[in-house]
Specification:
The strands form three sheets. The chain has a seven-stranded mixed β-sheet with strand order 2-1-3-4-12-11-10. The protein has a three-stranded mixed β-sheet with strand order 5-6-9. About 40% of the residues are buried. It contains five helices and twelve strands. The protein is α/β, with parallel strands linked by helices and about 190 residues long. Helices cover about 25% and strands about 35% of the residues. The termini are close together. It has a single domain, classed as Class I glutamine amidotransferase (GATase) domain (Rossmann fold), CATH 3.40.50. InterPro entries: Class_I_gatase-like (IPR029062), PdxT/SNO (IPR002161), PdxT/SNO_CS (IPR021196). Keywords: Glutamine amidotransferase, Hydrolase, Lyase, Pyridoxal phosphate, Transferase. Its EC number is 4.3.3.6, 3.5.1.2. It catalyses: L-glutamine + H2O = L-glutamate + NH4(+); aldehydo-D-ribose 5-phosphate + D-glyceraldehyde 3-phosphate + L-glutamine = pyridoxal 5'-phosphate + L-glutamate + phosphate + 3 H2O + H(+).
Amino acid sequence: MKIGVLSLQGDVIEHINHITKLGHVGIEVKKLEDMEGINGIILPGGESTTIGKLLRETKMLIPLRNKILSGLPVWGTCAGMILLAKAIEGEIDGHLKVMDIKVKRNAYGSQINSFKREVIISEISGEPLPLVFIRGPVITEVTSNVKIICKVFDKIVAVKQNNMFVTAFHPELTNNLEIHKYFINMCK
């Protein structure tokens, strides 16, 4: 299976390494034609404003949005979650605007407030999973068609809606492969 990783900025190689460890092919998506033939795409952590700007400059924003709306499985981690959200607190406009969520940037504070938690996410694994939060956003609103998968400190940090999955944390920065397995299963 071929899994694309949006490769404009952020934790690209870390995601590709996890995909490879699971026996699949990770493809860097830097331009429109790189999206051809992929079974799913990961929008990595990084800086959402920068990635959104680069999506527009490379003319990939609308085609990517259309592919997601047509059913391409997508997983947004941290900045990727912000890119997928229909609404961002304190901002007039979003980016891809495909997922029925509202997000708040840097909900846990600045870089210095980054932290790690071990949490059981029953949808994914019966074992505690390491969750790494770096200037993590949170989801402040969801509609009834969005499934809440994980909360940390009573804040929503992972949800799923149809072919879309988002996490406020960075599984690619751990050695654990369970969350990547979960997404790959969505791509089958």
